[in-house]
Amino acid sequence: MTWQNWGRSESASPVRVVTPASADEVATAIADARRDGLTVKPIGAGHSFTGIAVADGVQLNLSRLSGLLSVDRELQQVTLAAGTHLHEVPALLAPHGLAMQNLGDIDAQTVAGATSTGTHGTGAAFGGLATQIVAVTLVTAAGEILRIDASHELFNAARLGLGSLGVLVDITVQCVPAFKLAAVEAPEPLAGVLESFLERSAAPDHFEFYWFPHTTTALTKTNTRLALTEPSVPLGGFKRWLDDEFMSNTVFSWVCGIGRSIPAAIPSINRLASQLTGDRAFTDVSTSVFTTVRRVRFREMEYALAVEAIPEAVREIDRLITRKGWRISFPLEVRVAAPDDIWLSTAYGRRTGYVAVHRYVKEDHHEYFRAVEEVFRTFGGRPHWGKIHYRDAGDFATLYPRFDDFLAARDKLDPDRVFANAYLTRVLG
Questions:
Q1: Helix axis angle, 252-261 to 266-276, nearest 10°
Q2: How many domains does the chain have?
Q3: Which one of 20, 223, 232, 298 counts the least CB within 10 Å of its CB?
Q4: Is Ligase given among the entry's keywords (predicted)?
């Protein structure tokens, strides 16, 4: 069997695949792997673009570890099995009047995969998904089943552990009462958005923007949180299909194909796309606003910078693309997040902005990504653990104040590197 990730940037041919249905079965699979001298890696939805989930030994398929395990209505906390997909969570929480506090724009990932790699949404007052975790159950290399909460010394290692500390079997999440979002999406001059970015990104609950290279227009998205009792003004069925399915997937797939065959056409296509998309307002339940369906496959690099550095970083990427004469069809995405205290979080200890760059799956991404990464490095950027980058452990020792503490936690929980693979060896040593 050959496994591939969604972005077709990584593949693996594991010795065997195990599909456990309990923590005890996970422990047994780990013991069997150690007996046979094999490493162990769990997989979720395969939405990481790096090799973080590549399993050359035993691949743990967590699809049977799925669903809502418990609800504490008073504390508004829920425990989800690790293999539960984010797109399954709204229906599980709705009967209890709860929702996740924040989400990214893709919900195909599992809760364990998303939190373990540092997935985040946008909003200056909101941290990444891992900040919503209040406890985890982890099966260690020794087969020990650990319950780790805020009272445990390794809590801020286990909440975002890159799959290097053990196998997550369930996650307890701090939820909030279900809510709606009033969404306003509008094209604006890029120069003005960058000039006012610090104010724009801090004022509303959620703010982000996209920018198609070769244009001067930013497509802004501003979301305001509302009580669930507020009236809904959803997009009509046809309008949602037209914008989010036909234009964003079907037409964009055609555009990417044309751009690959005729690169010179990309600037004109991008200018047209900026004029035809991103101008609408609606109000709906939070999950219907936060997330979208992405069917056009791509590769992605994303870096976290101090929020103050975001405008100049975007300007420098614009200058870089012009200087190199590249033709880039995919937009840049810019978001923000609150600081946190999770040891390997890209937002550790600082107000953070994120810039993501993409390339169509059938295009070579390396030259573009390597050059853009050099821009990010000059601003002290930290790469997303689940998205393509070229950094190693020597870099991270200077980027993360608690990096050595995390390595000590890894030495304690997995001294024999049962959960290692080539990617983790590169980034953790």
A1: 160
A2: 3
A3: 232
A4: no
Rounded-to-integer distance, Cα 285 and Cα 410, Å: 40
Q: What is the pTM of this model?
A: 0.96
The answer to whether residue 394 sits within a structural domain is: no
Q: What is the mean pLDDT of the chain?
A: 95
C-alpha distances in Å from residue 266, one per residue of 34, 190, 350: 51, 18, 36
Specify if 418 maps to a domain: no
Q: How far is CA 412 from CA 42, 113, 157, 164, in A?
A: 20, 22, 12, 11
Give, as one character, the DSSP assignment of residue 213.
T
3-state secondary structure of 212: coil
Q: Give the CATH number, domain containing residue 20.
A: 3.30.43.10
The 10s digit of each residue's pLDDT in 287-336 is 999 998 888 999 999 999 999 999 999 999 999 999 999 999 999 999 99
Say which residue the tokens 């609408």 belong to.
280
Domain ranges, residue 23? 3-60
Contact 201, 124 (CB under 8 A): yes
In a domain, 49, yes or no: yes
